[in-house]
Amino acid sequence: MKTFLNCSVELAARLVRPQAERYNQIAFRLKKLADACGAIHFISVHLAHLRLRDFRNYARLDVDFAPGFHLLLGGNAQGKTNILEAIYLMATLRSFRGVGGAQMIRHDAKGYFVGGNVVGQGDHEIKMYWSLRERKLTLDGQPVKKLADYFGALRTVVFCTEDLQLIKGTARARRRFLDLLLAQTQPGYLPLLQRYMHSVRTRNALLKQRTINEAALESFSDELVKLGNEIIRARRELAPKFSPLARLAYRRISNDAEELRIEYQPSVKNDFAVELAQSKAREKTFRATLIGPHRDDLQLLQNEKSAAQFGSEGQKRTLAIALKMAQAEFLTGIHGSPPILLIDDVMGELDVKRRSGFLPLLEQARRTRGQVFMTCTDENWPSELGKNLQRWEVQAGTLQKHTLNIQH
Predict the structure, then answer these.
(1) What is the pLDDT of residues 317-333, one digit of tens each?
(2) Helix H or strand E segment including 183
(3) Strand 340-344 to 371-376 pairing
């Protein structure tokens, strides 16, 4: 029997062929393929409780969340995005805003605390404390010693303005996207990446010495090649599974405006060991490791043209959202449960046609009893999202729940 991910990839691959039907036929084809794959059972996973202490503009917050759709409404700088940031921080141990721990501490406080209870595939309690002098992370009451044991307790996909860096930014942003996706789906990938980057840093330190220890350099070169080849293989295997999902998501949002192609571009072209040896003279000049997975990139092409160079701002924004939609679909297929979706005022940036392409992902979350958190202002929140929404008023670091039933 095919897995849900295989079904999704197969359908996406069919629909993105040049002669694919228009989207008024997609629903019928989805149903046929789902019938062929058999019944799909999703496991609901949601954040049941969030606790904040001295985090951003929240001095103290304890709030319970049910599964479903949560609208965080309020004016600018009231704390809407801070809620999303805290949830994402628990999932990935980093801010999607690209800031360090010090910037997340409330003014005049010594440190912040973020904690939560996750209900679903095994219940989990997460607690983290960060200050300049002390950092603690516990999962189910036990100190986390290996990050690989922690990742997966909570899975999220965030949609935010910073996503544009996936298109406009350096290759580092796209590598991080690949690495996060692999860390969320392959338990051994994160420790592998950590060991590889340790080898890179150590090797770079050796190259910066006035007199290079050639024996030590060779030893870490061997380690670099061994670990690097495993990372390249994992990224190369991910590309054909992820790409059709991204292409279909892009076509849904762009309404067939352009054809998307994603191409993994490894720094190593053929033989890592040979190419590393050939770069030896250049490495001594630049005093850095110049070849390897830490120099990889993901090329994004719209109608065979670079999206970064030739795409409009609207096309870039659409592509960034499509990548995140594909990430959510990929995680759902692998784990059998949808990730928590964190949407930071993205819908207001889309026109009606592009917004309609985004809605199937939210509808899937509703059907599978997933959880969605969306920030928006009172003026632009999307009424077409349906009814049974849970509405929260956010004001000056406080949350107040309101009942809101929206009728079509």
Answers:
(1) 899 999 999 999 999 99
(2) helix 171-185
(3) parallel
Contact 171, 177 (CB under 8 A): no
3-state SS of the chain is CCCHHHHHHHHHHHHCCCCCCCHHHHHHHHHHHHHHHCCCCCCCCEEEEEEEEEECCEEEEEEECCCEEEEEECCCCCCHHHHHHHHHHHHHCCCCCCCCHHHHECCCCCEEEEEEEEECCCCEEEEEEEECCCEEEEECCEECCCHHHHCCCCCEEEECHHHHHHHHCCHHHHHHHHHHHHHHHCCCHHHHHHHHHHHHHHHHHHHCCCCCCHHHHHHHHHHHHHHHHHHHHHHHHHHHHHHHHHHHHHHHHHCCCCCEEEEEECCCCCCHHHHHHHCHHHHHHHCCCCCCHHHCEEEEEECCEEHHHHCCHHHHHHHHHHHHHHHHHHHHHHHCCCCEEEEECCHHHCCHHHHHHHHHHHHHHHHCCCEEEEEECCCCCCHHHCCCEEEEEEECCEEEEEEECCCC
> What would the pLDDT profile of 252-268 be if each residue is shown by its tens digit?
888 777 889 999 999 99
The tokens for 148 are 């690989």
| pLDDT tens profile 361-378 | 787 777 777 899 999 876
